[in-house]
Design a protein that fits this description.
171 residues, two-stranded antiparallel ribbon
């Protein structure tokens, strides 16, 4: 009787390596939430649009009690910040996601519209937003930040939605 680790190398060559093994059971493929890449692009754009709505609604509620001149200054400042955040921050993220999604073929997992690390970043950003809203920083100043990030999100989500339209037209 020979033990498995004493077998000659040529007999072990046919065994799959651990990283090549498929641990899916037969029939589980139908439960995989697979969608075409146009849906992934749409979900990414809608997620960014939804975040824009939430941030700008919060800003609106904070600014509606202020004077018109303060509202104008905060809104203009937030818009200027948005242009910088959009151009130097979010466009890179959108382009990386598009470079990852567009070459995909077939149906992919519905949650693959962004990499797994981005989900961790989202959780961190949610907690930071909660901390900021409950901090002693005046809501007037927070509204500038929220307008900036929110408007940058809608500007960046346009690129996702544009690719959705192009993907749907291409067939």
């Amino acid at each position: 009787v020979t033990l498995s680790f004493f077998r000659p190398a040529e007999k072990n060559m046919s065994r799959p390596r651990p990283q090549e093994r498929s641990f899916r059971e037969p029939g589980t493929e139908k439960w995989k939430p697979g969608v075409p890449k146009s849906v992934l692009l749409f979900l990414a754009g809608v997620l960014w649009l939804g975040t824009w709505i939430m941030l700008d609604v919060l800003s609106y509620h904070w600014l509606r009690v202020e004077t018109p001149s303060k509202i104008l200054v905060c809104s203009a400042s937030g818009f200027v910040c948005a242009l910088g955040i959009h151009h130097f921050g979010f466009l890179r993220i959108v382009d990386l996601n598009l470079d990852r999604i567009l070459p995909m073929e077939g149906r992919r997992c519905v949650f693959s519209f962004m990499p797994w690390k981005s989900y961790l970043i989202i959780v961190i950003m949610i907690f930071m937003g909660i901390l900021l809203r409950h901090s002693p920083i005046p809501k007037l100043y927070l509204s500038v930040l929220y307008i900036g990030i929110g408007t940058a999100l809608i500007l960046s989500s346009i690129r996702y939605l544009r690719y959705v339209m192009m993907t749907l037209k291409a067939g």
